[in-house]
Design brief:
Shape: elongated
Radius of gyration: 18 Å
Strand content: 25-35%
CATH superfamily: Ribosomal protein L22/L17
Largest sheet: 3 strands, antiparallel
CATH class: Alpha Beta
CATH topology: Ribosomal Protein L22, Chain A
Distance between the termini: 5 Å
Helix content: 25-40%
Number of helices: 3
Strand order of the largest sheet: 1-5-2
Structural class: alpha+beta
Length: 117
Amino acid sequence: MESTARARFQRFGSRKMNQILGQIRGKTVERAEQILPMVPRIAAGVVAKTVHSAAANLSSRLGHKVDSKNLWVKSAWVGQGPMQQLKRIQPGPMGRAHPFKRKMCHLTVVVSDGKGV
């Protein structure tokens, strides 16, 4: 059985987030929760919360607690979100002002227990 968790509108670039996801794809949830605190990126905390949430969603669907050793990260991907325009400006040429823009992404993690439906 599978369960998903999504973290939407996260203020990180999708390329940087995808580097973190590459380290946990195909691994058990327990191993992913050991790896993520060691990753030296701020976005790793968001990924750890999303993996934990997906595991909790699966145990909620099954109706009993599931050991994280038996769960594995079936797939994890990141999609590009909207560009956020902050209320700050960058001075531009000829006295103009350019707004700050920051990238956002949507993160999806699918966790499976390896058994069919």
